[in-house]
Amino acid sequence: MNPRFDDSSFTVAIVGCGGFIGSHLLDAVLERTRWRVFGVDLDFYRLQHRLNHERCEFLCADLADPAVVERIAQFPLVVNLAAICTPSRYMGEACEVIRSNYDHPAALATACAKSGSWLVHFSTSEIYGKTAVESGELLEDSTPAVFGPVTASRWSYATAKLLAERFIAGLPGLRWTVVRPFNFVGPYMDFMPGVDGEGIPRVLANFSTALLRGEPLKLVNGGKAKRCFTSVHDAVDFLFALFDAGLGGSLGSGNETVPGAGVFSQAFNVGNPGNEVSVAELAQKMRAIFAKLRGVDVSSLPEPQSVSGEEYYGAGYDDSMRRMPSVAKAERLLGFRARIPLDTALEESLSWFVKHYDVAQTP
Ligand SMILES: NC(=O)c1ccc[n+]([C@@H]2O[C@H](COP(=O)([O-])OP(=O)(O)OC[C@H]3O[C@@H](n4cnc5c(N)ncnc54)[C@H](O)[C@@H]3O)[C@@H](O)[C@H]2O)c1
């Protein structure tokens, strides 16, 4: 184990700590290290069990506030997960989405460049743009990005994230690493509409909600788009491999010859290429898992229904047909490869959702 994980005077700032990935990262930091955590979010409803933890300080605040940004940048390692990142908001709230995914991260990066913090910034696999079904592996440093028209405001999120990446990479003096997640899934993901959130959550929570409510799973444009669903536990393991490499030496000392320096100024795809599935296939897998959990025949569950993207998400919808990550860079620089198979990740996610919301969804 890296001796830095044993350093009880070290504090990691986790911004967006109350969200899906943030709550898993927080648990893992508390379990695998002796670090302290400075957690920032707009709310912490997922973290009730951690609120009084002796090694945590939580700040309920908005990253839009410059004083909050300055405070976060005082810590030597900053993981920025905060973002508006639900597709249904990309159309109706484009300006807010752009502020959240460009303005706030740019301000935080500027403060980290001044203070010398290592910024681990969460971008997205969407920065590869409108890839086609026949697109091959997406390579971090050479795949071109092509987006839909400006009128398709679905791309507000991806283009803001891309610009944030460009800003971070161009900022003199910043020590940075960018993470591009490929459809992470697991417990605590998103919300159940009408129970603890409004609008349309991402596909896993969306399908889980429909299954619990006995409604048909909606396949946007036939569910032909393919994705590599990746367990959030693999994502957390990736982050620990990254911390291990990046903290191999004197973080914050200004010494650029530290072991593991190869992880700075790099963007990494984090995904599981072995877990590729179309959204239509995902729907069938989730129906089968739900039927098993409930002890019923799958034929008793409603069949999925196809809907158009515009009908479902509203005007300005567009999509990318395939996102297959190249994971060679993470393997080469960090010795990391995602391991958890699709069925295991889906079973864990859906079982958690059913257990968590079964009573809550009953009117
Ligand atoms: N989960 C995935 O598969 C996935 C895929 C691609 C990219 N990402 C990126 O990873 C990051 C985390 O994703 P997640 O799935 O955990 O999302 P999430 O929505 O569950 O968590 C984001 C958290 O950020 C907080 N937040 C938003 N705006 C804030 C602000 N102004 N100030 C303070 N806190 C704020 C939210 O309250 C939320 O708790 C995001 O940047 C997202 O774009 C995730």
Question: What does this 3D model show about the protein?
Answer:
The chain is 37% helix and 16% strand. The protein is of the alpha/beta class. The protein has a single domain (7-357), classed as NAD(P)-binding Rossmann-like Domain (Rossmann fold, 3-Layer(aba) Sandwich), CATH 3.40.50.720. The longest helix is centred in the first third of the chain and has 22 residues, at 94-115. Mean pLDDT is 94; it is low at 250-259. Nicotinamide-adenine-dinucleotide (NAD) binds at residues 16, 18-22, 40-43, 62-64, 81-83, 85, 100, 104, 122, 124-125, 181, 183-184. Nicotinamide-adenine-dinucleotide is lined by residues 16, 18-22, 40-43, 62-64, 81-83, 85, 100, 104, 122, 124-125, 181, 183-184.
